[in-house]
Amino acid sequence: MATGPRYKVPFRRRREGRTDYRQRARLLRARVPRAVVRVSLRNVSIQLIDYDPKGDKVLVTAHSRELAEMGWDKACGNLPAAYLTGYLIGKRAKGKGIDSAVLDIGLKVPAKGSCVFAALKGMVDAGVDIPHGEEVIPSQDRLVGKHIGDDVAKLVNDIKTRMEAD
Predict the structure, then answer these.
(1) Separation of alpha carbons 79 and 145, rounded Å
(2) In the chain, how long is the greatest CA-to-CA distance?
(3) 117 and 74 in contact (C-beta within 8 Å)?
(4) Across-strand partners of 127?
(5) Cβ–Cβ contacts within 10 Å for residue 133, how many?
């Protein structure tokens, strides 16, 4: 490790590999809320966050575990669950008057057709304007879960119509 009077220690979150400060600065310059999507193996968490000099403010949040209250009995970390969670937060954002956002996937690799972009498609379908390219969005069959089973596709459509009614 480098030492000496000229050595500058990087910020803690940079050392831990948790924050890319250049990317964060670019997202903050957009002056619209960030749609922060975090995907683990078991869950999907999405927050709409606005910048504040005293600390970021969470405007709206949704978690894939909330889908169980609507009848979702499948895994919460797959593509259809990410799509439904994105749709849920999109409906909540529209209810609070948030019309646009910019996608923040953190240090996640932007792979085409991933859960991050399934959540993005859910938010866009709910009516939130988020700039994106159509080539990264998963196919409609994968979004509704036909690759898992026909019962999942029916369940996704049922939950989506239930969210639209609310």
Answers:
(1) 7
(2) 64
(3) no
(4) none
(5) 8
